[in-house]
Structure formats: C-alpha cells, structure tokens
Amino acid sequence: xxxxxxxxxxxxxxxxxxxxKEDFMDWKIIDYDIFELIDEAKxxxxxxxxxxxxxxxxFSEEYREYAMKxxxxxxxxxxLALNKTFFTQEHMLVLNCDKSAETIxxxxxxxxxxQENPSCFIIAPHPGFDIFNSISFKxxxxxxxxxDAIEHSWCYSDLWNKNKEAxxxxxxxxxxxxSTSDVHFLWLLDMDYAIIESDSLEIGDIFENIxxxxxxxxxxxxxxxxxxxxxxxxxxxxxxxxxx
Length: 244
What we know:
Elements (H helix, E strand, L loop, with lengths): L1 H4 E13 L15 H10 L4 E4 L9 H9 L3 E2 L4 E4 L7 E6 L11 H10 L4 E4 L12 H6 L6 E4 L10 H11 L3 E3 L13 E8 L2 H9 L3 E4 L5 H17 L4
Parallel strand pairs: 1-2, 2-3, 6-7, 7-8
Antiparallel strand pairs: 1-9, 4-5, 5-6, 9-10
C-alpha cells in the first residue's frame, strides 16, 4: 500500500468529520450511504476522508477498498460521546482507532486510550457550539493536552460564530485548528475542508503534518438563513421523520 499512496510534496484535499446513514444516531437525517458519500467525494476531488459514525466503530475493509479504488484514503474513525447524562454529552473525534474505542466513556478513558494507541489522532469537534453535544470551552482548556487538533466548525456566520473562542484557545495552546464540514447533507461536503501538505498519503504522515500546521483551511462565513434552514431540517427529520 505504501507504493500506491507514495508521492512527493503533494497537497491533499481532506475532510475529517463526515456522517452517512449507516450511523445509528443520524439515519433519519441522512439520505446517502457510505458508498454514495465516497462517490461524491471523488467527484469533488477529495483525497482523504474520515466518516465519523457516532459511538460505533463501523469501519470495514470493504469501505477502505472501495475508497482506495477511487484513490481516496479512508481513515478508521469514531465520534465518541463522553460524560453522558440524560440531556448532555461531549463529542470527540478519534481517528485511526479500532473497535475498542467504543469503551471510552470519559476523559480519563480517552487519555488512557491515547497512551495505549499513540497512532490515533484526537480532534475536539465544534467546541462550545451547544450544551447538548459539544465539549465546553472549560473542558477543552482543562484537557487540552489530550487533543491533537481542534475543529473549525462549518456552522458560523457574521452574526454568530463560536469558532472565535476556539481559535483563541488553539492559539494559546499552540494546537492546529482544522476545518471540517461535519456533513449530514451532501451539498455541504465541499464548503469546509482542509488542504494538507504531505510527502505521502500515509496516515501517520498526514497526522504529523496536521500537528505541524502544514495545511490550509478552506472555509467562509455562511448566510445565517442557510444555517437556520440546515439546523431546522436536522431537527425536523430527527423528531418527526418516519422510518424509511
């Protein structure tokens, strides 16, 4: 595989936070499966993807091989929910993990997993964006050493932008802040992503170049009406859409 992916000082288009209808939490919201997402990513010239299913490790060789045929590097993934209560939880992206990551329930577990699996890469997704699914800025600062990167969320406008506080934390802690689209609708796929510089498409090299901030974020403010419509559609489908 090293020969297939080897290159020389290339720029790779990457999205490291994606969802598809195989996700047991978001199946009502999403209309496309993993293969359709990979096909669309190929159409949009993506080179690297991480499909971050909530709380379940569903990565398979079938998915990897399908992506590889499209010349796309598919990274094993999971989006964890830590410190769960009846109303709240704090999401974490763990890339290049295995099924044992499903057992992580809190920050102590996460820290232990990282120590035992140093090749994994942990991103704090959408910090501070809501009290139900996002890590608080307080906990982000308290546990900053666990994280390899902080997500720059797609969901912001000139009227509302929680990324600003996260950017300050990233600057103070010298952590990279990387754009993702947290895709639940395919039309969002090409709006927020990163262009990563790397000598190869090996997972370890990609992660190291992100840590060294050898990437460029492609992102821009969204019309507030677009954000409102997107969030409303997700809410409506979650609570009122019938089983398909």
